[in-house]
Amino acid sequence: MDRDGLADFLRRRREALKPVNFGFAASARRRTEGLRRDEVAGLAHISTDFYTRLEQRRGSRPSETTVAALGLALRLTEDELDHLYRLAGHQPPPRAAHGDHADPSLLRVLERLDTPAQIVSDLGVTLKQNPLAEELLGVQTGHTGLRRSQIYRWFTDPEERHRFPADDHETHSRSYTAHLRAAYSRDESSPKPAELVAELQRRSPEFTRLWQEHEVAVRTDIRKRILHPVVGLITLDCQILISPSHRQNLVIFTTTPGRKDAELLTFLSIVKRTTEPQPGETGY
């Protein structure tokens, strides 16, 4: 582990980030450039004390999972993330190709979370869900063909919209279209985005109308209202961590502690535990 190199690299990358790009207010009272240490720690889901020790050259060696989380929080490129792994004394993991396997760095973070979360490709294919995400949104990993894309299902299958209030449908439609436009523009040579866009234009007048407006956006935070069949309407904040390749996103659903939505999310986790098959049960 290169303590000096790790501390310097983390500090420089942190200071190079713009708070407004993360939803933080750009206040004149900020005494530091870029993000604050506690903000980076929060984005990486680690303690501020642990992160501060790393920048002060006195922390213990971060695990591979923590390195992956820091890479996402600091929005490192693939080369920068590989460098961070080496500074921390780890071998960089194989880079994820544009395919059906979840990015290793995103997967490591997903496995640590105790809140609903899922890994989704830039074309809307859900690659991995944790159990709470399955309970919240239903199992999304069993589809085949173009239906694997939640963007495709949103515009072609009315059932896909039942878990969202009707007043929010237009917002979701615009968000999905703008996100797909960004993915399409980034990888025009690949047949997959082109096939998805062509089929949506053929089947969905709504998508065609929105596609013609040429909006482009990759959101990193959004608020969603979900109509759950057990707990009812629940409002969640969605933090979106983007992989270094920009081809996969880790979507994390959270609530503000102490509010009704936090109580509903806690109840949802209880429902999940009580409905799971117990040892000796068939699971039917």
From TrEMBL:
Its source organism is Kibdelosporangium philippinense
* Top-level lineage group: Bacteria
Name the InterPro entries for this protein: Cro/C1-type_HTH (IPR001387), Lambda_DNA-bd_dom_sf (IPR010982), MLTR_LBD (IPR041413)
Official protein name in the record: Helix-turn-helix transcriptional regulator
Taking every annotated instance into account, which residue ranges of this chain make up the domain HTH cro/C1-type?
Answer: 9-81
